[in-house]
Each structure stands twice: as C-alpha cells, then as structure tokens.
Amino acid sequence: MWNPWLNRYAYLLAIATLLLVVAGASVTSNEAGLSVPDWPLSYGKLMPEMTGGIFYEHGHRMIATTVGFLSIFLAVWLWRVESRGWLKKLGLAALGAVIFQGLLGGLTVLYLLPKPVSISHACLAQVFFSCTMAIALFTSKGWLHGAPEVEDSGGISLRSLAVGTPVVLLGQLALGAGYRHKAIGLIWHILGAVIATGVVLFFAVSVLSYFQSHRPLRRTAVALLSITFAQVFLGVGAYMSRIATLEAPQPMPLMVWFTVIHVAVGALTMGTAVLLGIQVLRYVRRPRLEVEARQMATT
Q1: Most buried among 207, 211, 224, 242, by the most CB within 10 A?
Q2: What is the pTM of this model?
C-alpha cells in the first residue's frame, strides 16, 4: 500500500538535507569554521569580522539539528508502517549516518578543521543525501507500481555502470572536498571532473539509447544529463570566479555562491546517479546468454 504522507515526508527530509549541504558549503567557502572554532560564543565578545562566520556556522548547526530530528522520526515511521524489512534497515542506516555525521562535525570543530575529518564529514553528507533520495524513491507510488523489465543489451553491462557511476562520483566529490579544505591541488579535482563527467555521460546516454521507451529509466537519465551539464558549467564558473577574486582579502560573494551552488548540484548529480543505478538494477535484466552461462557453470 502506498503511503503518500510517508513519501512526502521522505522528500521533505531530502530537501532539508540538500539545504544542509548548502549550509556546510557556505561555512567552508566563507572560511567561517576557521573564524569560530569554539562556537557557541557570546556575540558581544566577537570582533565585527567574526559575526558573519557565526551566522553561517550557527545556521549550519541549526539545520543539522533539524535534519537529525527529521531522520529519527523517519526511521521510527518506517519501522512502524513498512512491511519491507530492508527499507526499515535502510532507515536505521540513514539515522546511524546522521549520528556519525554529527560526531565528525564535532571533531571538526574540536580539533580546528583537521583535513581528513573535514573531508570525511563532507563526503558522508553526500552519501546521506543520496540515501534520503533513495528512500523517497522507494516510498513513491511509481516504485510500488513498478514498470516492465527489459534486457541488458550486452557489451559493457549497464548493471555494472549502475554500481560504478555513483562510486566514481563519490570519489570526485571527495576530491572537491579535498580541494576546498586545501588538502590537494586543483588539478586533481579537474582531472577527476573529466573522468566523472565521461562516466556519467556514458551511463546516461547508454540508458537513453537502449531504453528510450522505458519511462522511469528515460526520465531519470534525462535528469542526470541535465544536472551534469549544469554542474560542468558551475564548475567552470566557480574556477573563473576564484581566479578573478584571487587577490581579494576575504572570500567574495560571487566566488562563494558559485562554489556553494556547485557543491549542491554535485550532491544532486550523485543522488540522481544513485536513483538511476537503483532503477537499472531493478528493471534491467542480465543478458539471457550471460544468465544461461552462469547457470551452466553452477551445474
């Protein structure tokens, strides 16, 4: 039975998580975490140039707290009403990720932004966002009603791409976080972007080429292509704005907003790739010859 309110709530959590990603990127891009490592502080004791940092950091933590409570409620709701045991476990896993994310955030502040912890904190946020998008998909009416299965065309397996593409994107997001936290140079992030973009384009175009008439696969593949093209444009804009404001004494708004939107759309790119991967694994069967060969090998 489809529960529309549960599905809407899952979408609400996904939106709140995307806002959390935006808030976290705002803290990093404005270098707010460096200004206020011992938050909370008394506003009356702050220097004027630190009040902006407090604003971004305080907003980030308020959104994080809200997402935490929303995640608790979702896990309880899924446990009470869902008949699919694996979805109940996914809700608990998402809650565990939020708790661990909070611990990483605390360590980030306590130890003054250690690079490995900060990068892990950023990557886990992306994974959790993808998890919320998956839960929204699993609780949707379209998923419960299903769609016809299709057969993989052979060659490079779409099922392998369904698993590999999100992994490649997570690696690229890690490189981006490493660059923002000044752990690696920009060249590694650019090289990763070229590879990740190529993998995403190959995956999405392959789905569209072979399964144009399959509505769920077509819609998600088109969305992934559109988001990826926007992400490439934003990446170029973020780079150009950073170069243009290189001599500025503090982060400039143009560079900050390009970077923040770039991070947010990066999260959407990975989340959409995860959704397409899940749909491919559900609707695309292995080639008949491959299945027969596996059966013969086991007999």
Answers
A1: 224
A2: 0.87
3-state secondary structure 148-177: CCEECCCCCCHHHHHHHHHHHHHHHHHHHH
How is residue 173 written in tokens?
């997001």
Cα–Cα distances (Å) from 273 to 155, 173, 179, 201, 211, in that order, read 20, 13, 23, 11, 16
Instruction: Give CA–CA dist 181/31, Å, rounded.
Output: 10
- DSSP SS3 for 143: helix
Q: At what angle do helices 158-180 and 115-138 cross, to 10 degrees?
A: 140
Q: How many CB atoms lie within 10 A of CB 109?
A: 16
Burial 245-265 (b: 16+ CB within 10 A, else e): beeeeebeebbbbbbbbbbbb
**Dist. CA 197–CA 213, nearest whole Å:** 25
Residue 221: name the closest of 239, 235, 240, 207 by CA.
207
What is the mean predicted confidence (pLDDT) over 57-79? 91
d(CA 55, CA 43): 10
> What's the pLDDT at 114?
74
Confidence of residue 198 (pLDDT cuts 50, 70, 90): very high
Q: What values do phi and psi take at 284, rounded to 5?
A: -100, 115
Tell me, what DSSP letter sits at residue 210?
H
Give CA torsion, residues 62, 68, 73, 78, to 10 deg.
Answer: 140
Spatial CA neighbour of 37 closest among 98, 84, 106, 87: 106
Largest CA distance in the chain: 76
